[in-house]
């Protein structure tokens, strides 16, 4: 017991002394100190709500922001189940939460359950069939999981043990590849050094049961997020560049991961610039250059390639990346989500969700990006303890005049439906747009050789008629599994956009 207390005392001393030392030497400013504490302890910042988030944060035209949850402090990585529930890891709380899908249509999870707790700094999540995998800082475990009920169906047990978690970058990220293998990324112990454990600063690959582990890529200082491009199955991973070399060098990176390749750290930075603190690589390796540079110290974390059905054409080959934001910089930078657009000319980076570094200071730190079964985009924020939900409503999103007209007339219904008088038409329109995208209604009504255009729909049908068509669709229209609330939302959206 005495030894245990001594260890706790040393850790507490380091926790207090390191940020104070960085502040006293001018290495960081007070704003950066809060960011360091956020990374080290999960300490949060100001909470947010929907009105505040919509006022502060910006999106490209046609996208709409809502706050899906604002009561999830220390929120980090996410994974959706087949049933539409959202799994959320919280390393500094030691648990995995399950946010139950929004079945009642109020725009919030129906419940928040602790699915697993007592874990050691869990971050990465993966689902393979009935198995739920969790990457703790020192091991990877799995448990049988019933997606329909959202409940565990057995005991959690480790499949990969003996991982080291000392030093700076203790987190582990996992994913199931197109080859059915379990991929594991783990960062370095330090800012710049030669590692004693050859598995650190690498990408590894295992059988689903944790056997036959192998290192497939090296020289990755801290690749927290990775995903596979759906058009060619290529694996891409974010990577955080080293610190303490000035405001603008080295860049953080997006790397295309290929087996057997070396990506530079600790001997090279950015586009293969030799590191002045390390000297020549003793193995004489030729590093692979980044596929795309991010601004220095922006700290790219989670990434996901988008299912672009229902999105504008330029999102068809795109990924979203969460930039957690800088600490080692004289002025803060990052703190946003960017979209990466892949083409034959390379990768173009654009702002997607921005505004977290604003007149009120740093009000949020994006961590991870996930796309739900409904096609909506979800972004976790460990600083505000929030999850944002983003939907594409198109350039024809309802304006105030259109909404007022909807409320005051029945659109050819002999009797306006009772629910119309108290309905939140803006919320229904947003939800209807998401449903329109989720079920790819545009494939029949906007695209193809002979699309069944919905132009002027409001001159032909009213709410009750649209509801009847959705309940009893004429051939060849498919019968969609819509609830009553979903039919109302689609009716509002269809009448508003025409």
Give a structural overview:
This protein is of the alpha+beta class. The chain has two domains: 48-392, TolB, C-terminal domain (Neuraminidase); 400-496, Cytochrome Bc1 Complex, Chain D, domain 2 (Orthogonal Bundle), CATH 1.10.760. The chain contains eight helices and 30 strands. Strands 6, 7, 8, 9 and 10 form a five-stranded antiparallel β-sheet that branches. α1 (2-24) runs antiparallel to α2, α5 (425-438) crosses α8 (484-496) and α7 (463-471) packs across α8 (484-496). The longest helix is centred in the N-terminal third of the chain and has 23 residues, at 2-24. It is globular, with a radius of gyration of 24 Å.
List keywords for this structure.
498 residues, alpha+beta, Neuraminidase, 2 domains, 8 helices
Structure at a glance:
This protein is α+β, with helices and mostly antiparallel strands and 498 residues long. The protein has helices at residues 2-24, 30-41, 50-56, 400-408, 425-438, 442-445, 463-471, 484-496; strands at residues 63-69, 78-80, 86-90, 95-99, 112-116, 124-128, 131-135, 140-146, 151-152, 157-160, 172-176, 182-186, 202-206, 214-218, 226-228, 235-239, 252-257, 261-262, 268-269, 273-274, 292-294, 300-305, 318-323, 336-343, 346-353, 357-358, 361-362, 366-371, 377-381, 386-392. The protein has 2 domains: 48-392, TolB, C-terminal domain (Neuraminidase, 6 Propeller); 400-496, Cytochrome Bc1 Complex, Chain D, domain 2 (Orthogonal Bundle).
């Amino acid at each position: 017991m005495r030894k245990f207390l001594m260890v706790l005392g040393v850790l507490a001393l380091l926790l207090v002394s390191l940020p104070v030392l960085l502040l006293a030497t001018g290495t960081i400013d007070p704003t950066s100190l809060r960011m360091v504490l956020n990374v080290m302890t999960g300490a949060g910042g100001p909470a947010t709500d929907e009105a505040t988030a919509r006022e502060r944060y910006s999106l490209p035209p046609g996208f709409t922001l809502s706050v899906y949850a604002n009561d999830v402090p220390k929120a980090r990585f996410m994974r959706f189940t087949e049933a539409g529930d959202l799994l959320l890891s919280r390393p500094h709380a030691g648990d995995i939460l399950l946010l139950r899908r929004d079945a009642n249509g109020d725009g919030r999870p129906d419940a928040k359950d602790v699915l697993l707790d007592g874990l050691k700094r869990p971050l990465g999540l993966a689902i393979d069939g009935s198995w739920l995998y969790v990457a703790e800082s020192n091991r990877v475990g799995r448990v049988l999981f019933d997606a329909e009920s959202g409940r565990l169906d057995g005991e959690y047990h480790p499949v990969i043990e003996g991982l080291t978690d000392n030093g700076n970058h203790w987190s582990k990220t996992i994913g199931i590849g197109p080859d059915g293998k379990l991929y594991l990324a783990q960062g370095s112990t330090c800012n710049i050094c030669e590692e004693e454990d050859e598995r650190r600063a690498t990408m590894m690959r295992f059988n689903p049961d944790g056997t036959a582990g192998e290192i497939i890529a090296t020289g990755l200082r801290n690749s927290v997020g990775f995903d596979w491009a759906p058009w060619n199955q290529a694996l891409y991973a974010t990577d955080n560049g080293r610190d303490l070399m000035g405001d603008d060098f080295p860049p953080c990176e997006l790397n295309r991961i290929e087996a057997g390749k070396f990506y530079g750290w600790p001997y090279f930075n950015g586009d293969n610039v030799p590191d002045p603190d390390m000297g020549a690589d003793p193995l004489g390796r030729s590093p692979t250059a980044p596929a795309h540079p991010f601004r220095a110290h922006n700290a790219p974390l989670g990434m996901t390639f988008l299912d672009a059905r229902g999105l504008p054409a330029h999102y068809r080959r795109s990924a979203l990346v969460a930039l957690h934001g800088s600490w080692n910089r004289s002025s803060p930078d990052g703190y946003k989500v960017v979209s990466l657009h892949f083409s034959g000319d390379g990768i173009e980076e654009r702002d997607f969700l921005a505004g977290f570094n604003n007149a009120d200071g740093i009000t949020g730190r994006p961590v991870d990006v996930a796309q739900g079964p409904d096609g909506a985009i979800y972004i976790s924020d460990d600083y505000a303890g929030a999850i944002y939900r983003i939907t594409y409503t198109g350039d024809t999103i309802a304006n105030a005049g259109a909404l007022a007209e909807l409320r005051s007339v029945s659109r050819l219904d002999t009797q306006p439906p009772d629910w119309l008088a108290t309905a939140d038409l803006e919320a229904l329109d947003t939800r209807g747009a998401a449903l329109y995208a989720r079920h790819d209604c545009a494939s029949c009504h906007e695209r193809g050789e002979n699309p069944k255009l919905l132009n002027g729909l409001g001159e032909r049908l009213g709410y009750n008629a649209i509801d009847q068509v959705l309940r009893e669709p004429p051939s060849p229209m498919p019968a969609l599994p819509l609830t009553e609330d979903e039919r109302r939302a689609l009716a509002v959206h269809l009448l508003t956009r025409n």
